[in-house]
Amino acid sequence: MTNHLHLICRAKEGYELSDILRDFKRHTAKYILLSIQEEPESRREWILNILEEAGEQNQKNKQYQVWRQDNHPIELNKPETVQQKLNYIHNNPIEEGFVQNPEDYLFSSARNYSGLEAVLEIDLI
Predict the structure, then answer these.
(1) In this predicted model, what pLDDT tens digit does every residue of 29-88 receive, in sequence order?
(2) Rounded distance, CA 15 to CA 23, Å?
(3) How many domains does the chain have?
(4) Shared domain check, 48 and 19
(5) What's the CA gap between 53 and 114, in Å, rounded?
(6) Contact 114, 103 (CB under 8 A)
(7) Residue 110: Cβ within 10 Å count
(8) For residue 1, is it within any domain?
(9) Which of 77, 60, 78, 81 is closest to 69 using CA atoms?
């Protein structure tokens, strides 16, 4: 939750989901690093050192490693499996003790499903 994300996604015809995830990681890593470097943050050096040490372990990186190289995809080929995973995602902030209701978590699609103002723009399933 504070160090990972869960999502249900698919690639449009003609696109590869692995390419989309790669580009997502590249784009967000750039802005995460920029934010760490530019915003006043008391743990800045500590965070950058951790990301730099992780980057040294991966020959593909020039300096920092923000995201792990792997993903944990699960094929959702039945409506009940999709619903089970959606429920898991929506209830995860409750299980982690962040909120009491799924729609209370600002970065959850549960807000969209509840008809509340949401930070994320999604397609309802």
Answers:
(1) 999 999 999 988 899 999 999 999 999 988 887 799 999 888 888 999 999 999 999 999
(2) 12
(3) 2
(4) yes
(5) 42
(6) yes
(7) 23
(8) no
(9) 60
pLDDT of amino acid 71: 86
Q: Do 39 and 80 reside in the same domain of the chain? A: no
Please, are residues 80 and 87 in contact by the beta-carbon 8 Å criterion? no
Whether the CB-CB separation of 108 and 93 falls below 8 Å is answered with: yes
Question: What DSSP line would sit under 19-67, residue for residue?
Answer: HHHHHHHHHHHHHHHHHHHHS--TTHHHHHHHHHHHHHT-TT-SS---S
Provide the pLDDT confidence category of residue 105 given band limits of 50, 70 and 90: very high
Domain shared by 95 and 62, yes or no: no
Q: List Cβ<8 Å contacts ≥24 apart for 80-84.
A: 82/8, 82/125
Report pTM: 0.80
Residue 15, in any domain of the structure: yes
Which residues constitute the domain of residue 49?
A: 6-69
